[in-house]
Amino acid sequence: MSTPLSEHFCLEEMTRSQTALRQGIDNSPTAGIVANLTRLCETLLEPARALLGEPFHVDSGYRCVALNEAVGGAKNSAHMTGRAADIIPQGLDLHAAFDKLRLSDLPYDQIIIECGAWLHLAVAVEGEQPRRMALTASGGPGAWHYLEVR
Ligand SMILES: [Zn+2]
């Protein structure tokens, strides 16, 4: 059984975490988080999937504070409010996907290519204008280094 959030994405893939399961962290979302995840899927992930023409593997969506700490996420991570997902487009070069998405008119708040291994896509805080920031992130937990791409 899965709980759809949009045509191609479900709640389970947006909250599932191997780290949470292994460490016994309860990563259940509140109704407000589910609302953000739904907005993320409907307004950003679905149009991004349609633009690239490829399905996504979702690596990480919502992370409660404890889980975000456990995986070394940024202190102010949009994952903690259900506004971000780390995705890997299938069947497409990651840098090509990054360029196609960042140069599109999609309403992303941030798109980040992280460790050259996945894409972080985030929507703005409800009611705020998306900043449309494109960044590369390198480094690792506690020492992320961000570089803006123009
Ligand atoms: Zn991320």
What binds here, in terms of ligands, is: zinc ion
- Residues in helices, as a percent range: 25-40%
The biggest beta sheet reads: 6 strands, mixed
List the helices and strands in order.
HHHEHEHEEEE
Distance between the termini: 42 Å
Number of strands: 6
Q: Which SSEs are present, and which pair or pack?
A:
Blueprint: H1 11-15, H2 18-23, H3 31-52, E1 56-60, H4 65-70, E2 84-89, H5 94-102, E3 110-114, E4 118-122, E5 133-140, E6 143-148
Parallel strand pairs: 3-5
Antiparallel strand pairs: 1-2, 2-4, 3-4, 5-6
The structure holds zinc ion (ZN).
Zinc ion (ZN) is lined by residues 79, 84, 86, 120.
Descriptive report:
The chain is of the alpha+beta class and 150 residues long. The chain has one domain: Muramoyl-pentapeptide Carboxypeptidase, domain 2, CATH 3.30.1380. Helix content is 32%, strand content 23%. It is built from five helices and six strands. The protein has helices spanning 11-15, 18-23, 31-52, 65-70, 94-102, and strands at 56-60, 84-89, 110-114, 118-122, 133-140, 143-148. Strands 1-2-4-3-5-6 form a six-stranded mixed β-sheet. It is globular and about 40 Å long. The model has no long low-confidence stretch (mean pLDDT 95). The site of zinc ion has 4 residues, from strand 2.
